[in-house]
Amino acid sequence: MNLSVIEGSFSYQPDKPILKNLNFQLSEGQVLCVLGQNGAGKTTLLRCLTGFLKWNSGHAELNGQRIDGIKSLTQIAYVPQAHPAVFPYTALEMVCMGKAKSKSFFEMPSRLDREQAMESLESVGMQGLAHRKCSQMSGGQLQLVYLARALVGSPELLILDEPESHLDFRNQALIFDKITELVGLKRLSCIINTHNPEHALRISDLSLLIGYDGCYEFGKTSDVLNEENIHRFFGVFVKLLDLKPLGVEQKTFVIDRRSGNIL
Amino acid sequence: MNLKSKEAARSRLIISILIGALLLSAFFSLFMGRYYMEPGKVAELLAGLMSGKSQKSAELNVVWDIRFPRVLLNIIVGAGLAASGTAFQAIFQNRLVSPDILGVSNGAGFGAALALLVTGGSAVWVTGFAFGFGLISVFLTFLLAKTNRAASPLALVLSGIIVSSLFGAFISLIKLAADTESVLPAITYWLMGSFAGTTFEKVRIAAVPVAAGLAALFSMRWKMNMLSMGDEEAYTLGINPRLNRLVIIAASTIITGACVAVTGVIGWVGMILPNICREFISADNKTLLPASCIAGAVFMVLVDLLARTVTAAEIPIGILTAIVGTPVFAFVYRKGSGDGS
């Protein structure tokens, strides 16, 4: 699996570029976090990658082949935010939807598909709630169901849109641990939208920072996620802390309030 | 896996019960009514008919030429409206949507009123005009929704409401111009919906488009699950939202148009039955669509039985579906989880 975006540009209005000549690439087993403020273009980028929106210029390539979208690509799956479903589908019915790409026009899920859906639910630890209605689940459980739905098609790349949104503190940690575990287990690659740089620090190999007017910064997380870039792209002063002295193998950002002004 | 098969067995059981209820209520309808007949007599008549050894009699006339086509039409219309309601709710991602949300009923009502005014009530013209204008109104809705770049579900629903009220105004205009002694009552009664005077001819007219539309909806029913998640998710799951929505709207419109053309406007069935079945059977359209079809047919047979037996003069069924539908809905919703899930 090798995904690259070459000179990707997109705008809703001609004079206001959202993404401009964007270039990045991602290899097998790598996690890329896409960061930026609200409205910077994170979701737009994911929509261009899935093909729901069309690039104005430039394109994406999968293993050197140009792709126009993921509608008929089983190698790439999309995980939406944990939005509540309008209809009370059970978890199993929801996960079965992930098999639609490999079905012909009139085909319906078979017994085998349901078994695979069950296995997929097991892989995220949700087999016990397979027959629970999605409308009766917590946000964290629902997010795991959407994750299972993406995994049931055995993809090589997952695209996740802010998987931590609408989740509480514990569930955020839970969902990211699950993603990290699956990445290690199945050699999955991930592109994850997040607005929290700490999550990117913890789980990603690569980071893509998107700012207004189409400017961006791409590179290894350890290189690009620094104090200057956070100020540049998020507009707040931060300090990067190494928690090693406390016995924790982790770095974290804290907002710097010493000057009395965080902006 | 065991659990899943249990669930499948449960859906099969419920569908079998519904089919049983349908057969029972249909048979019941054949001997109940103003002209009461012993159930045994009806069975005898039917058996006689099967073996081709029946003689002409008033009873045979009532059962075979009046009640039998009427029950058949009840089933066709009930199943058709419930199916297109189920499909529309899925593709518009809203449980309160009914089959006429895109304007088919008011369009058909206008067509029928126009035919009643101009042709003086010939059944062929009324049915043809109603069906034609039903389709035209949905087409107009599409054109209107298209003016705002993409025909998104929301744009379609809004345009449908506008086109509906436009044709509603046209109906009022015709009523205004209509002769108050003969044409106006005819229009008013037509708009209330009725199965009175059903013939095999009407059954044939409705059966072909409804069967064709149902075949399309049945073969695409699993895709409605994906479409109900919204365009973006449907797309990422491998479904072309616009194309599939278009086919489903076309099939549903043909069904609803045909039903309205032969019976007049009958509300509620297409909105309520899918919700009740979703609550008690399954939200998965793979099971839900057949279930609400059969439940819609049962409901229609029973309500029409009420319509023609409760009072000496027949009550228009459009009135009864709402009067019966509301308490049924309230009861069922209270019994269910109550939170709409």
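qc> The first helix of chain B runs from residue 2 to 31.
qc> done
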